[in-house]
Amino acid sequence: MNSQTAKTIKRIVTASITILAVIVFVLTGVGFYILHTALAPSKWAKNPDATYDHMLSEYPFLQEWTDSLKQNDELKETELNAPDGTLLHAYYIKAKQPTKKTAVIIHGHKNNAINMLHIAYLYRHDLGFNVLLPDLRAHGKSGGNHIQMGWNDRLDVMLWMDKANELFGGNTQMVVHGISMGAATTMMLSGEEQPDYVKAYVEDCGYTSVWDEFAHVAKQDYHLPQMPFLYVADLFCKWRYGWSFKEASAVEQLRKTDRPMLFIHGNADTYVPTDMVYTLYDAKQGDKELWIVPGVGHATSYHDYPEEYTQRVKNFVNKYL
C-alpha cells in the first residue's frame, strides 16, 4: 500500500467517524429535546394563581361560586407523602349536604388542579358530590421532577382515592373523572385492582398510550418520524425515569377494567386524535358509554356544551352511584 492510498483510507475513516459522531449527536440531542419538551415541568403548571385567572376568564360563573367557597372556608387543601417521599398536594370540597358520593378529578398535561374547577363545579354544585382535585407530580403545588404522562400518576391517584375515601367519612361511592392526560391517568389506574368504593370512571379525550400520543405530536408539530427519534427518547426515559412510552398504555389497562366507564371525545380533536377513542372504547369490556361531541376540539367539550355535558355525566354516574 503506497502512502497516497493510506492517506485516502485515513481521510475516509476520519470522515466516516465524523459523520457517525454527528449522527449520534443529532439523535441524542433530538431525543433529549423530545423528552424535555414533554416531561419537564412548566412555569404555568406550577402557578395556580395564573391558572385561576385563566379559569375565570373561560368560565365567569366560577367567580361567584369560588368566592363563596373561600368565604365559607369550604375550599381546603391537603397533602400526602408518596412511597418515594415526594410530597403531593390536593384541594378538596365537602358537599353541601352529607353524602357518600365522591368525585376524584384529574387534570391534564402541564396544567394543575385549579384547571379542573369547572368539573368540580359540575360535581359539587350541580350533582351534590364531595370532590377532591389532586395536583399530579410536577404540577401545581405537588413535588416531582418530571411529568409522568399518567403512567406512574395512576399509582399516586390511587393514594388520593384512599385519601378522599378517608376525608369524606369512609364507605364512599366514588367516580374518577379525568381530562386529557388526566383521562389517560384514569384509564391507566382503572386496570389496577380497585377498592370496592370505586363505582365508575369518566374519561374525556384521553390517549391510547404515551407512545401513540408522542408519535402523533412529533409528526404533527415537528415533522419527525418515529424511527429513530422517538425510540431514542424512549430509551432516555427508561434510563432516566424508569418507565417507557410503550408500557404506558391505556388500551392495555382498559382490557383489565371491570367498572363502568363513560368515554367523551370531540370529533374535531387534532391534539389527541378522535380515532383514539374508538380503540379505547373497543378495548373496554362490560358497561360503557361513548359520546362523540360534534365540532369540539381538544378538552373543550364542557366549555362548548356545558348543559349537555353535565346531563350526560349525571345520567351516567347516577346509574352506578
Please describe what this structure looks like.
The chain is α/β, with parallel strands linked by helices and 321 residues long. The chain folds into 2 domains: 1-39 and 210-246, no CATH class; 43-208 and 248-317, 3-Layer(aba) Sandwich (Rossmann fold). 47% of the residues lie in helices and 16% in strands. It is built from 12 helices and 8 strands. It has an 8-stranded mixed beta sheet with strand order 1-2-4-3-5-6-7-8, with helices on both faces. Helix 1 (3-39) packs across helix 8. The longest helix is centred in the first third of the chain and has 37 residues, at 3-39.
List keywords for this structure.
about 325 residues; alpha/beta; 2 domains; eight-stranded mixed beta sheet; 8 strands; about 45% helix; about 15% strand; globular
List strands and helices in order, with pairings.
Elements: H1 3-39, H2 48-58, H3 62-71, E1 76-81, E2 87-93, E3 101-106, H4 117-126, E4 130-135, H5 153-167, E5 173-179, H6 181-190, E6 198-204, H7 210-222, H8 226-241, H9 250-254, E7 261-266, H10 275-283, E8 288-293, H11 301-304, H12 306-317
Parallel strand pairs: 3-4, 3-5, 5-6, 6-7, 7-8
Antiparallel strand pairs: 1-2, 2-4
Helix pairs in contact: 1-8, 5-6
Distance between the first and last residues' Cα: 85 Å
CATH classification, class level of the largest domain: Alpha Beta
CATH architectural group of the largest domain: 3-Layer(aba) Sandwich
Class inferred from helices and paired strands: alpha/beta
Q: What is the typical, i.e. mean, pLDDT?
A: 92
Looking at CATH, the homologous superfamily of the largest domain is Alpha/Beta hydrolase fold, catalytic domain
Q: Which strands sit side by side, in order, in the main sheet?
A: 1-2-4-3-5-6-7-8
Strand content: 15-25%
Question: What characterizes the major β-sheet?
Answer: 8 strands, mixed
